[in-house]
Amino acid sequence: MTDTEERKAPTGRTPTREHLLDVYRMMRTIREFEERVHAEFATGEIPGFVHLYAGEEASAVGVCSNLDGRDTIASTHRGHGHCIARGVDVVEMMAEIYGRKTGSCHGKGGSMHIADLSKGMLGANGIVGGGPPLICGTALAAKLKGTGGVSVAFFGDGGSNQGTTLESMNLASVWNLPAVFVAENNGYAETTSSAWSVASDNIADRAAGFGMPGVIVDGFDFFAVHEAASEAIARARDGGGPTLIEMKFTRYYGHFEGDQQTYRADEVEHARAELDCLKRFADRVTETGELSRADLRAVDAQVASLIDQAVDEAKAAPLPAEADLLTDVYVRY
Amino acid sequence: MARNITYREALNEALAQEMERDESVVVMGEDNAGGAGSPGEDDAWGGVLGVTKGLYHKFPGRVLDTPISESAFIGAAIGAATAGLRPVAELMFVDFMGVCFDQIYNQAAKFRYMFGGKAVTPVVIRTMYGAGLRAAAQHSQCLYSLFTHIPGLKVVMPATPYDAKGLMIQAIRDNDPVMFFEHKALYDLTGPVPEESYTLPFGEANVVREGGDVTIVTLGRMVHTSLEAAGRLGADGVQCEVIDLRTTSPLDEDTVLDSVEGTGRLVVVDESHPRCSVAADISALAVRKAFGALQAPVEMVTAPHTPVPFSSALEDLYIPDAQRIVNAVKAVTGWTR
Amino acid sequence: MGDAIVGVVANPLSGRDIRRLVTQASVFPTAEKANMIQRMLTAFGAVGVQRVLLSTDLGGISAAVYRAIQRHRPQKPQNRQDARWPEVDFLDGQPIRQTAQDTVGAVGRMVTAGARVIVCLGGDGTARVAASAAGDVPLLALSTGTNNVFPAVREATIAGLAAGLVATGAMPPGGATTRAKLLEVRVGDRTETALVDVAVSTQRHVGARAVWDPATVTQLFCAFAEPDAIGLSSVLGQLHPVTRHEPHGVTARLAAGAPRQVLAPIAPGLVVLVGVREIEPMHPGSVHAVDARAGVIAVDGERELTFGPGERPAVRLRADGPRCVDVSAVLAASARLGLLRRAAADPGPAGTDVKGGNT
User: How much is the ipTM here?
Assistant: First the structure.
């Protein structure tokens, strides 16, 4: 097993000032990272496909801020947010997206396959529903080894219909695994609305069919996400078994960059104006006096600088060499 | 100290010895113990054909039965492998690969490469293959060529009890994902197997019979059919070299090519359908790398391009038999331009 | 007098919050809510309600009812009483934001359109929100799920008969409805109302809204506290019971180490020890200050109002809460007045079977 970092998880009840700054920084980093990728992708310099997480930050950070070095997550093709929330190096992530040798995966994986097992991040995944079975595995390993670790599977409303996801929820209950299933319902699987494709009224309603509690959370509200996730993760850690949490929110960009999004109306404008998780977080913490606007602006400036650095370094970094094509297929063939 | 045990017992012994040696080895699959949920019925089967019998009680908590959810539990075995366990998961019949193939070929096979060398996935997926039990079309296929095709997987198919134990222990200790193919008609085959633990390396074929006239390259159950054919041909003065590939990924090209360089004639015997098969792969290898040595076209003896039929009259025609191998050898030895 | 109109609002989101995880709260299927509405439509039709206004939602309730209406065939006429469903108008046209505002908007439109009774399906939260918009129109809150104190736990057909009898004006004035008490919370210029309880929590944020840890509650105000109710009011329900009908309420300060401890069923499956300090009655109109400097105020079990130093929230008991349909009283009166009695069918031509068989 690779090294794991001990990162303190804040308690569910009263995050300290330090923790609030930490989570704000993380959400802001995700937002700026994605907005920047959006801009850079439009220049044509980024190869392949990218799927942006902007708008959904409260889910990744609200959940992952409850995890520590014992825990593992698996993500989706829309994985940048989860990677950042687990502390994967942002500069290396950007280099990976640009296909550079200095990238998180040495340029071999790309946006949809960024992973860092040392940070408990089992990867973004190009296969819808690919993550949940793997998470049953890491949860099984944690249970058999007695580490107390919890495994979290993130999937979308599209992934909630994939057989792998349904099987995994059943298996996690039957084996009583320390797992949490997080359905990020942003309303669409590509162009197909979740209201149409999910036969039950809510994804959370399926939980009863798999022997676990199902909870709906406003995915734009960091504090609501954090609290619900805290309870679910504690339950898993204590041997109480898995939980299904359904986040309801909106993605700010299309399924992939280049998606014309003819299937959507005004919900993004409405969300950015009225529901945005960063705005609401900032309003809340400044209202209570836990943080000041100046504190937040300082973080914003640091994040902006980090993203600039990441892009500059990525653009300047070397591409993988020819010999790299054949490496790391096997440990030893 | 070797004694005669069955192929099944050899596998069971390999699993038991490795589980004894390394507590991160766990076994999972449908009815790998059996009787889950029925008090007093634990270890009811020990696997559908008994390979894992007895392990449940010997290693409490390390033999896990599963619901019929291949993608979930094969995926779980794979995920657990990345997290420090060494799972041996059973895909009961390789014919079921369709319901979990993504986890095998898109996840396990590709983690190490996609993640830039930062993942290790030491999972073994055991699976039953092969025709001959009248199990019909959906429980009788070979399909190892599909896995052989995938970079990142290793593919192993022992033909004897001795090879079964050695290759299984190797598979469990190997740090890459291994697809371990067990022919269902070989479970009762007996042969000498040492009591102690030992490994057989992957990528090393076994020359099970030497001969200078024809090279027969084969694998799995067809090794025995090929030896039967070679016995008959030997009586007619044609000496066949029979090579058991043991593993198709990695593949021991050198042993095959050396033999073909010596005999100039190649017959490949593979229980699979012919298209994109291991037979086709070996044939192409010989043509590409030993063309100058070939005295005749390569002959493939395979099953037909049909699903496996049920009726015994038809299934016996489906499976390559010794006579067909004899005919193929005669074709290559008798061939003139 | 105009058409007898009943408004029905159902909350699709009740029953899927964190209480499914932190308590043993039930999961109440949407299909059952739709089923309840259909049972009410039959009851409304039976007593002569002409129109029903139904809220629309994205949770499948109105869609299921719509499908049922398409398929509905009246039962074969028996005894001249034709069990038709009333005309159902779906309140379309407003964007659904999946918040409490949907309920407020729907109820407001029902009131404007002349609804004579508003039936709401949901929990305490739904009843509270519906009540805030119902004005003087009588409310019949029907419970869906556990953890509900205010709404009636009633079979929907019976509730439908009672609501229908009130809506058609068949009930004499007085006796059909009772006026509920109300708690009003003011924080600066923000106001919230509660039908059962107001709890002051040390938590800092609204978060997942529900309150399930009594250790975080420092002060409790109850419009009523029944000894056989579930929820936070049960804390005082065992120590100082107050019925719905008494004019006063009750308030107390809570502290884990208080000498007086009570086992209270504060949520489904959650019976916990709660420490209670000073208890005092709340008289209608008197204003009670909230002691805490900062925190969140929960109304009817859901965190709603955050407050900080200097804001000084206050709670007041009011006697002018919603008018609530008293189902038992309505049906008892109906029995007395013979409102559901009908004359026997005319015998008709000789030889005709009463069940409408062949002629």
Answer: 0.87
